[in-house]
Amino acid sequence: MNPRFDLLTLQLLRKVDETGSVARAAETIHLTASAASKRILELESQLGIALLTRRPEGARLTAAGQAVARRTERVLEQLQGLQQDLAGFADGTSGTVRIASNTSGMCAGLADLMARFSAQYPGIRISVREATSAAVLEAVANGSVDLGIAHAGAQAEHLQSLPYTRTPLVLAVPAGHELAGRDAVFYEETLRFPHIARSAGSALAQFSGQDGPGTPHPAAVSTQVTSFPAVFSLVSAGLGVAVVPAAPADWHVPANIRQVPLADDWASFELRLVVDPGVVPTPAVSRLLEALLSQAA
Hints:
By secondary structure, this protein is an alpha/beta fold. The chain is 39% helix and 23% strand. The chain has helices spanning 7-19, 22-28, 33-47, 63-91, 103-120, 133-142, 228-236, 283-296, and strands at residues 52-55, 58-61, 95-101, 124-130, 147-151, 160-174, 195-198, 221-225, 242-245, 257-261, 268-275. Strands 3, 4, 5, 6, 9, 10 and 11 form a seven-stranded mixed β-sheet that branches. A two-stranded antiparallel ribbon has the order 1-2. Keywords: DNA-binding, Transcription, Transcription regulation.
């Protein structure tokens, strides 16, 4: 028969080793002496070996009992570590948070926020997936991620969206372009120039080479690409103009590109945080969501 080790009996053996008495050991863990003796006898019977040497003046562990006591010390240390680990999950200082974000969200300070958050909560692992806004909503809806960052125009009825960022839209043009010196330009004025467009499915596709809100004609699309660096590279080479969010300093926009603000009322790009209100977030998810909302404030 395989012996059944219970934690209380193992602790009892350690206390016998410390006190030299079953009765005193029993008292320290709130057992009667008879109950303590019964536990030890049952374990000895299961193991088929003596764990104690019993004498009128007290009890001492046998070599086998000492081996059990040493192992028990390690088990208790591991259990204490387990309790600490689980406490981290309970208070939100440990865990995993899964994020899906569109490209604009990835570029909107998310990396810096994640770096600060990870420094503050090193026990929380953040997993990030880049996707189109539609795919972000799908990932939140099917539970494969905990929260998403998507364009405000992307909607899903049963998901909740929260304000995150709103960035002005600008026209990226090469230096020397006839619009480069303008303080602002209306989108319709750009339609006579070739546009470098984000590929279909991108939230910015509606502004890059397709009908902009309130414009009667689509722009002439010369090239479609998937990334902002590719957009800037082509604009820098003089192959067209592009509607993009106003680039922060860390985008490393080529020096020969000018960003001309769009004067249209609609010319801003809003990102929103997306969560499933039917799912109770883990403490770690709640902490990161709070940090994202704090950045948005």
